[in-house]
Design goal:
The complex is a heterotetramer of chains A (207), B (339), C (645) and D (184). Chain C has 19 helices and four strands. Chain C has 645 residues and is mostly helical. Chain C has one domain: Cytochrome c oxidase-like, subunit I domain (Cytochrome C Oxidase, Chain A, Up-down Bundle). Chain D has a domain of 125 residues: Orthogonal Bundle (Cytochrome Bc1 Complex, Chain D, domain 2), CATH 1.10.760.10. In chain D, α4 crosses α7 and α6 crosses α7. Classes of the chains: A mainly alpha (207), B alpha+beta (339), C mainly alpha (645), D mainly alpha (184). β1 of chain A pairs antiparallel with β1 of chain C.
Chain lengths: 207, 339, 645, 184
C-alpha cells in the first residue's frame, strides 16, 4: 500500500516487441470468439432437436398423416456436404504458410460447394411433403431445415467475401487466419447439417 | 406516491396484523393436505429462522469485533493462525448446512408422498373445466341424466375423498383453495387428476392462481363442505330440472330470458335455453355468489350484473343487457325462483 | 531484462510524458455527434450501458409504484385490467431484460473487466459497441410499444396459449418476443467480448489462480449466458412463428404442446437468476476483501462454488413448474437440485464472514451496502429453500409470497451490490467521490422502505393473494397489508431521489478521488481516475492475486508495444504468458449502421415474414462494410517475422 | 405550474394520437343506436352496394384486432358454424368467396344478422347485442380477407382445417350480387 504513495523507478521491463503479430489456430482470439459463436448456435440446434423429440412423444404416429420427406435431394446434399470438407481442410492447411494462390483456389472450391449445397437445399424444401402450417411435426421440420439453411447462406456469403478479399493484396496475416477459421465454421455447418438430415430423413422413417 | 398516504385506513392496519381465521389462508388448514403442508411449513420455517439469526449474528459480531473507524485506507494485514482456525469453522458450517438441507429434503419428500398419497376407496369424482373466467363443475355419471352440471361452487361431503379431474377449455388456469390443498395447473391438452378431502364443514374460498388474462383477478370459486346427508340432498336438488315459474311475473321473466341474449349462452334445463357458452343457471338461486364469486347472489347484485357486467368485470364474456326496468324486474324474480 | 532508461510506473502516469501524449493521440476516440456513434472504447460503452440501464431501472420503478398505488384499495378504479396487465408485464420485462442483465453483467463487466485484466481495451470493441446499440433498440421497441397502447400484456414470461395467436390478438406479444431477441443478442455479444478478454488479454503473470474474484465470476457468467440465452431465443422465436406464420408448436390440437414453451423458457429463466446474482456476489467479494484490509478468505472454495453455481443453475429449471403436476420422481430430483444450490452460495457467505472476522473491517459506505446485501439476500435465499420443497411450493407458488421471495433475491442480490459497486467505482468512473452523508441517507431510506414493502408481501401470499391480480375483493382482508407495502414505496422513492441528488452534486463538487481512494488491490486502481483512453501507460505484469497490495515495487511492466498503432498484447488462457500482439480495430460507424439495419429487420418481422428476405441484404451490406479490411491494416511487419502456429 | 400542466396535456395528446386503434381493447361498449337498422338498405336490391354508407361505429370494430377476435369466438359460440361452416358454407352460403348476396359491407352483414334473410337465415334481433353483431360482421369480412392483415385473426388453437384469416387473399366482392335463394 505505502509503496503507491511515493514515486518509484522500475528497473525491470518485459519486452514484447519480438512477439509475432499474427496467430493461427487456437491462439487466435477470433478463433476463440468463433468457438463461442458455434457454442451458441450449437445450443440453439440442440434445443430444437430436443423440442423435435419432445413433440414426437406427443403424437402417436410419426410423421402424423404425412409421407416422410423424399430422400433424393437430402441424400445427395449429405454427400456434397461430406465432399465439401476437402476444400475446407485444404484452406485450413495452406493458410498459415501464407501461400495466397493456394488459399484463393481453396476458397474458390469451397464457395462452389457452398453454392451447390444451397441450390440442392432449395429442392429439399420442395420434397418435404408437408407445409409448416400443417401441424407441429411440419413446423418443426421446416424450422430445423430453415435454421440450417440460414447458416448455409451466412457461410456462403462469408466464403464469397473472403474469396473477394483474397483477390486483393489485403489477403495477408490476420485475413489468412480468418480464412482458416472460416473452415472451422464450415465443419460446424456440415456436422449440424448431417444431424438435421438424420432427424428429417432418418427418424421419420425409423422412429 | 403522495396519494397513497391519503388512502391509509388505520383500522385496516390493525386488522392486517391480527391473524383473521379466514377460510382462504395457507396457515388455517381445514383439510389433511393443507394440514400436512402447514406442519412442513412451520418446521422448515423454524430451521431457517435459526439459520438466519445465526448468520446475521455472525456478520454483526464479526463487524463489531474487527470494525475500525477510519476514513483513510488502513494497511493490509495478515492473520495466518486466524485463517487456520477459520478453515475449520467454515468446514464445520458447511457440514451443518449439508445435513440441514438433507433433513429438509427428506421431510419434504415424505410430506409430498403423504399429500399425493393413494386415494381411499369410493371417492366422489368431480370434473373441473376452467374457462376464461369461470369454472364449470360437473359430477360425471354413467347415465347422462344423472350428471350434475353447475358453476363456481363445489359441494363436497365432509370427510370423504374427492377426486378432481381437471381440464381447460382455453388458456392455462390454476385451481387453488389455500385452506384445502396446494394448487394444480389446468393446461389445455392435458387432463390431470388430483384428490383432496375436507374435514371441517364450511365454505372455503378458492381462486385461479395462474395469470389467465383480463379477469384473472375475478376468477374465484368456493368449496362448500357439508355433512353427507346435506350433500346428498343437494345432489337430489341439482338433478331436478328447473322449477316451473309459479307467479305471472316469473312466467314473464322466463319469456324475457328466452327472448333475449340470455339464451344464446346459458342453459336452464327444462326450457329451450340449452347453450353451454356460459354457466348453467338451472339452479342459480341455490348459489351463494354470482359472477365467479365476485358478487353476492342478491336481487340488486344480479340486476347490476345483468345490465352492465362490463362495469363490474371489464373484459368478461357476458354482454351488457339494457333491459326495460319491468322486464329486468321480472327476469330477476324468475332467476331467483330457480332454487 | 534491464534497460538503459528506466520507465515510469503506471501509477505515476501524469499524462505529461511524451509516451503518454503519443498513446493518447493513437487511442483517441472521435468526438462530436458522429464521433459518439463511432466510439468503441470499453469505458465509454460501459458507462453508456450503466446509465441507460439505470434509466430503465427508474422507469420500471415508476411502474412498480403505479402497481402499488392500484392495489392500495380493494376494487380500485385507478387502472383497468387492460392497462394493469401491460404495466406489470412492462415492469417485469424492463427490470429483467432492460435493467438487471444490462447493468450487472454488461455495464459493470464492460467497464471494469479490461481494467482489471490490465488491457488497453476490451476484445472485439466493435461487437461490444454493436451490442449496446442493439440493447437500446430493444428497449425502444418495448417502450415505444407501451406508449402506443401496444405494450405486452401477457406477463414477462408470456406463457402460451395466453400469448399465442388465439388469445393475444394484435401485436402486443410480438413486441415482447422481439424485444427478447434484441436484448439477448446484445447480451450474447457482450458475453463473447468479456470471455475472450478474460481468457486472452490478462496481464502477463495473471495466471488463472491469480485472477481477481470478479474476473472469475464474469467468466462463469459469460459462459452461462452463452448456454442459457439461446433457450429463450428459441422459445420467443417459436412463439413469434406461431403468431406470425401459423406454425403449431404450442397448439395441442395439432400435436403441439404448451409445456414445451415453459421448459424452454425456464431452461433460460433459472440460469438467468444466477446471471443476475453472480455479478452481485462478485462485487461483494471484491468489496469485502478491500474493506477487511486483507486477502479474501477461501479463494479456492469461492471459485469452486461460483463454477458450481453456474453448473447447478442449469439443472433446477423445473422448480418453476411444480404446479403443472409432473411425476413425483422428477419433483424429488429437482427439489434436491434446488436445495443443492444452497451449498455453494452458503460457502461464499461463510468465506465472506470469515474474511471480515479475521480482518480489520472499515465500514465505509460501499461496505454498508454489502451488509444490506447480506441481510436481504439471506432472507431471499432462505425463503427460496422453502420454495424448493414441492408441497410448500404448491401452496405459495404464484402468490405474493413468491413475489416477496424473488424481490428479496433480485433486489438483494443485484440492486444492493449494484449500489455498493456504484459507490465503490464511481470515483474511478467520474474522478470524484460520492458524498458519504447523502449516501447513508440513501441506504437507510431504501433499506427500510424495501423491507417494509417486501417483507409484508410474504404475509399476503400466505393469506392467499395470487400474483398478477389487478384488484381484489374487500372481503378478502388484504387491504391493510397492501397499504403497508405501498407505504414502503414512498421510502424507496425518497432514497432514489437522494441518490440522484448525490450523483449530480458529486459530479460537480465531489471530493477529488485520486488513483486509488479505497486503497484497493485491483489493477483498475493503478491508473488515474477517470482512466486515460489507453488505460495503462505501460501494460502491467502481475506476480500475485492482489497486485497493488503484494507485488514488489520493482514489478516489471511491458514495453515494446508500438504506440503509433493500437497494438494490444494477447496472453495464454491459462498461465497468461505473452503469446503474440494483436491490433485493436479502433473506432467505426459500422457497428451502429449494422445495428440500424438489424433493428429494421427485427421490427419488420413483427408485422410480416417478408421482413426477413427484404431486411437481410442491408444487414449483409453493413456487415461487409464492418468487416472489410481497412487501408492502414495490415500493418507493415518486420521482414521474415515468424507467425505463431 | 400551468406550464407543466400544458406540457403534460400535450404529452398525453401526443401519445393518444399515435396509439394504435388496432390494439384497442373495447371493453365498455357505446350505447346501442336504435335507428341503425333503418339506415341500412339491402344491397341485393340496388347495385353499387359498396357505395352504401356504413354506420360510423362499425369501423371501431373492424379496426380493432381484439374486436375481430371476439367476433371469431362468437362465430363459434353462437353456432354460425352450423350453417356456414368455417366460411366454406354448407346449409348456408359460403362466406370466404367473392359472392355477397346481401352485400359485403359491415353494415350489410350486420343487418343480415339482425333482420334475418329468406331461406333459412334467422333474425337475431334482441338475441345478439348490437356490438357483438358488429364484431361478428367484422370477423365475417376477415373470412374473405376484406380486413387488414394486422387485424385479421391468425391460427386458432383448434384443428387446422383452413388457412388462417390473416393469410387469406382478399376476395374482392363481385359488383353485381346474386339473387336471394340462388345459392341454396
Amino acid at each position: 500500500m505505502e509503496s503507491l504513495s511515493e514515486p518509484i523507478r522500475r528497473p525491470l521491463t518485459l519486452d514484447v516487441s519480438g512477439l509475432p503479430s499474427v496467430a493461427f489456430g487456437h491462439r487466435n482470439t477470433t478463433w476463440l470468439a468463433n468457438l463461442f459463436y458455434m457454442t451458441i448456435e450449437g445450443m440453439m440446434f440442440a434445443l430444437m432437436f430436443a423440442s423435435y423429440f419432445y413433440l414426437r412423444t406427443r403424437s402417436t404416429n410419426w410423421p402424423p398423416g404425412h409421407l416422410p420427406p423424399a430422400l433424393t435431394f437430402g441424400v445427395l446434399n449429405a454427400v456434397v456436404f461430406l465432399l465439401s470438407v476437402i476444400p475446407a481442410c485444404r484452406v485450413k492447411k495452406v493458410a498459415p504458410s501464407g501461400d495466397r494462390r493456394a488459399v484463393t483456389n481453396g476458397l474458390l472450391a469451397l464457395a462452389l460447394f457452398a453454392l451447390a449445397t444451397t441450390a440442392l437445399r432449395v429442392f429439399e424444401f420442395g420434397a418435404l411433403n408437408c407445409r409448416w402450417s400443417d401441424d407441429a411435426y411440419s413446423s418443426t421440420v421446416w424450422v430445423l431445415i430453415g435454421m440450417h439453411s440460414g447458416h448455409l447462406i451466412t457461410e456462403l456469403i462469408e466464403t464469397l467475401v473472403l474469396l473477394a478479399i483474397s483477390f486483393t493484396p489485403k489477403m495477408e496475416g490476420t485475413r489468412l487466419a480468418d480464412a482458416a477459421i472460416n473452415s472451422d465454421y464450415w465443419y460446424f455447418v456440415v456436422v449440424t447439417g448431417l444431424i438435421v438430415d438424420l432427424l428429417i430423413y432418418g427418424t421419420t422413417r425409423f422412429l | 406516491m403522495k396519494p397513497a398516504l391519503k388512502f391509509i385506513p388505520w383500522r385496516f392496519l390493525v386488522q392486517a396484523m391480527s391473524l383473521d381465521p379466514g377460510h382462504h389462508h395457507v396457515l388455517h388448514p381445514a383439510a389433511p393436505q393443507a394440514g400436512n403442508i402447514e406442519w412442513l411449513y412451520w418446521v422448515i420455517f423454524g430451521v431457517l429462522t435459526a439459520v438466519f439469526v445465526l448468520m446475521i449474528a455472525g456478520f454483526t459480531w464479526a463487524g463489531a469485533k474487527t470494525g475500525v473507524a477510519a476514513s483513510h485506507p488502513l494497511p493490509i494485514m495478515e492473520d495466518k493462525e486466524g485463517d487456520h482456525r477459520a478453515r475449520w469453522v467454515v468446514g464445520l458450517a458447511m457440514g451443518v448446512t449439508v445435513v440441514t438441507l438433507f433433513v429438509i429434503l427428506v421431510i419434504s419428500v415424505v410430506t409430498g408422498k403423504r399429500i399425493h398419497g393413494p386415494t381411499s376407496k369410493n371417492p366422489v369424482t368431480i370434473q373441473v373445466t376452467a374457462r376464461q373466467w369461470w369454472w364449470e363443475i360437473t359430477y360425471p355419471n354413467p347415465q347422462a341424466d344423472q350428471t350434475i352440471t353447475t358453476a363456481n361452487e363445489i359441494h363436497v361431503p365432509v370427510g370423504a375423498p374427492i377426486v378432481v379431474l381437471t381440464n381447460s377449455k382455453d388458456v392455462i388456469h390454476s385451481f387453488w383453495a389455500p385452506s384445502i390443498t396446494g394448487k394444480r395447473d389446468l393446461i389445455p391438452g392435458y387432463s390431470s387428476a388430483f384428490w383432496f378431502q375436507v374435514d371441517q364443514p364450511g365454505t372455503y374460498h378458492g381462486q385461479c392462481a395462474e395469470f389467465c388474462g383480463l379477469q384473472h383477478a375475478h376468477m374465484g370459486f368456493s368449496v362448500v363442505a357439508e355433512p353427507v346427508d346435506q350433500f346428498q340432498a343437494w345432489q337430489q336438488q341439482q338433478l331436478k330440472a328447473a322449477a316451473e315459474p309459479s307467479t305471472s311475473e316469473a312466467v314473464r321473466g322466463r319469456d324475457v330470458f328466452l327472448t333475449h341474449a340470455c339464451l344464446m349462452c346459458h342453459t336452464i334445463r327444462g326450457t329451450d335455453a340449452g347453450s353451454h357458452v356460459g354457466p348453467d343457471l338451472t339452479h342459480i338461486a341455490g348459489r351463494n355468489m354470482i359472477a365467479a364469486e365476485t358478487l353476492p347472489n342478491t336481487a340488486g347484485a344480479l340486476a347490476g350484473w345483468i345490465v352492465d357486467p362490463q362495469r363490474i368485470k371489464p373484459g368478461t364474456r357476458m354482454s351488457p343487457n339494457p333491459l326495460a326496468p319491468d322486464d329486468l324486474q321480472a327476469l330477476i324474480v324468475y332467476l331467483r325462483s330457480l332454487q | 531484462m534491464p534497460v538503459a532508461e528506466p520507465v515510469i510506473a503506471n501509477d505515476q502516469d501524469t499524462g505529461q510524458s511524451e509516451l503518454a501524449r503519443r498513446l493518447a493521440s493513437t487511442w483517441r476516440q472521435p468526438r462530436g455527434f458522429w464521433g459518439w456513434f463511432c466510439n468503441t472504447h470499453h469505458t465509454d460503452i460501459g458507462i453508456r450501458f450503466i446509465v441507460t440501464s439505470f434509466i430503465f431501472l427508474l422507469l420500471g420503478g415508476v411502474l412498480a409504484a403505479m402497481i402499488r398505488l392500484q392495489l392500495v384499495r380493494p376494487e380500485n378504479s385507478l387502472m383497468g385490467p387492460d392497462l394493469y396487465n401491460q404495466v406489470f408485464t412492462m415492469h417485469g420485462s424492463s427490470m429483467i431484460f432492460l435493467f438487471a442483465v444490462p447493468m450487472m453483467f454488461q455495464g459493470f463487466g464492460v467497464y471494469i473487466v479490461p481494467l482489471m485484466c490490465g488491457a488497453r481495451n476490451i476484445a472485439f470493441p466493435r461487437l461490444n459497441a454493436f451490442s449496446y446499440y442493439l440493447y437500446v433498440g430493444g428497449a425502444l421497441v418495448l417502450w415505444g410499444g407501451f406508449l402506443t397502447n401496444t405494450g405486452p400484456d401477457v406477463g414477462w414470461f408470456a406463457y402460451v396459449p395466453l400469448s399465442g395467436p388465439a388469445y393475444s390478438p394484435g401485436h402486443r406479444a410480438d413486441i415482447w418476443s422481439q424485444m427478447i431477441t434484441f436484448t439477448e443478442v446484445s447480451a450474447l455479444g457482450v458475453a463473447i467480448c468479456l470471455a475472450t478478454t478474460i481468457l486472452r488479454h490478462r496481464a502477463p503473470g495473471m495466471t488463472l489462480n491469480r485472477m481477481p474474484m470478479l474476473l472469475w465470476e464474469k467468466l462463469v457468467i459469460s459462459i452461462a449466458v452463452i448456454f442459457a440465452m439461446p433457450a429463450v431465443m428459441i422459445a420467443s422465436g417459436l412463439l413469434l412463428l406461431d403468431r406470425l406464420i401459423g406454425t403449431h408448436f404450442f397448439n395441442p390440437a395439432e400435436g403441439g404442446d404448451a409445456l414445451l414453451y415453459q421448459h424452454l423458457f425456464w431452461f433460460f429463466g433459472h440460469p438467468e437468476v444466477y446471471i443476475i446474482f453472480l455479478p452481485g456476489a462478485a462485487i461483494v467479494s471484491t468489496l469485502v476483501e478491500c474493506f477487511s484490509r486483507r486477502r479474501i478468505f477461501g479463494y479456492t472454495p469461492i471459485v469452486i462454488s461460483v463454477v458450481a453455481t453456474g453448473f447447478i443453475g442449469f439443472s433446477v429449471w423445473v422448480h418453476h413448474m411444480f404446479a403443472t403436476g409432473l411425476p413425483q420422481l422428477s419433483e424429488s430430483f429437482f427439489t434436491a437440485a434446488s436445495l443443492m444450490i444452497v451449498i455453494p452460495t452458503g460457502t461464499q457467505f461463510f468465506c465472506w464472514m470469515a474474511t471480515i472476522w479475521h480482518g480489520r473491517l472499515q465500514l465505509r459506505l460501499p461496505m454498508l451496502w454489502c451488509f444490506g446485501f447480506f441481510f436481504t439476500f439471506l432472507i431471499g435465499g432462505l425463503s427460496g429453500v422453502m420454495l424448493a420443497s414441492v408441497p410448500v411450493d404448491l401452496q405459495v407458488h404464484d402468490t405474493y409470497f413468491v413475489v416477496a421471495h424473488f424481490h428479496y433475491v433480485l433486489i438483494g442480490g443485484a440492486l444492493f451490490p449494484m449500489f455498493a459497486g456504484l459507490y465503490f467505482w464511481f470515483p474511478k468512473i467520474a474522478g470524484r467521490m460520492l458524498n458519504d452523508r447523502l449516501g447513508a441517507w440513501h441506504f437507510w431510506l431504501f433499506f427500510i422502505g424495501f423491507n417494509l414493502t417486501f417483507f409484508t408481501l410474504h404475509f399476503l401470499g400466505l393469506r392467499g393473494m395470487p400474483r398478477r391480480v389487478y384488484t381484489y375483493g374487500p372481503d378478502m382482508h388484504w387491504q391493510g397489508l397492501n397499504v403497508l407495502a405501498s407505504i414502503g414505496v414512498v421510502f424507496m422513492t425518497a432514497g432514489f431521489l437522494v441518490f440522484l441528488v448525490n450523483v449530480l452534486r458529486s459530479l460537480r463538487m465531489g471530493k477529488i478521488a485520486g488513483n486509488n481512494p479505497w486503497g484497493d488491490a485491483g489493477l483498475e486502481w493503478a491508473m488515474s481516475s477517470p482512466p486515460p483512453p489507453y488505460n495503462f501507460l505501460h501494460l502491467p505484469t502481475v506476480s500475485s492475486r492482489d497486485p497493488l497490495w503484494e507485488d514488489p515495487p520493482d514489478q516489471p511492466v511491458v514495453v515494446g508495444l508500438r504506440d503509433d498503432i493500437r497494438e494490444t498484447l494477447v496472453t495464454h488462457s491459462l498461465d497468461a504468458e505473452p503469446q503474440h500482439k494483436d491490433e485493436d480495430p479502433g473506432p467505426s460507424i459500422w457497428p451502429f449502421l449494422t445495428a440500424l439495419t438489424v433493428s429494421a429487420a427485427f421490427v419488420g418481422s413483427i408485422f410480416t415474414p417478408w421482413a426477413v428476405p427484404v431486411g437481410a441484404p442491408p444487414v449483409i451490406v453493413t456487415l461487409i462494410g464492418w468487416l472489410w479490411p481497412r487501408g492502414q491494416s495490415p500493418t507493415p511487419r518486420p521482414s521474415g517475422e515468424q507467425w505463431s502456429r | 405550474m400551468a406550464k407543466h400542466f400544458y406540457f403534460a396535456l400535450l404529452l398525453v395528446i401526443a401519445v393518444l394520437l399515435v396509439s394504435c386503434k388496432r390494439e384497442e381493447r373495447i371493453l365498455r361498449q357505446p350505447p346501442p343506436a336504435n335507428d341503425i337498422l333503418n339506415t341500412i338498405q339491402i344491397s341485393g336490391l340496388n347495385p353499387g352496394a359498396n357505395s352504401i354508407p356504413t354506420p360510423p361505429n362499425s369501423n371501431m370494430y373492424q379496426e380493432s384486432a381484439y374486436a375481430v377476435a371476439e367476433g371469431q369466438k362468437l362465430y363459434e359460440e353462437y353456432n354460425c358454424v352450423g350453417c356456414h361452416a368455417h366460411g366454406g358454407g354448407g346449409i348456408g352460403p359460403a362466406l370466404m368467396d367473392r359472392d355477397w348476396i346481401y352485400g359485403s359491407e359491415a353494415g350489410n352483414i350486420f343487418s343480415t344478422i339482425m333482420q334475418g334473410r329468406p331461406n333459412g337465415m334467422p333474425s337475431f334481433r334482441n338475441r345478439i347485442p348490437e356490438y357483438q353483431a358488429w364484431e361478428i360482421a367484422a370477423y365475417v369480412r376477415s373470412l374473405a380477407g376484406l380486413l387488414p392483415k394486422g387485424v385479421s385473426p391468425n391460427r386458432t388453437d383448434q384443428m387446422n382445417i383452413k388457412p388462417a384469416e390473416s393469410s387469406t387473399p382478399e376476395q374482392t366482392p363481385s359488383g353485381i350480387t346474386g339473387i336471394p335463394g340462388q345459392h341454396q
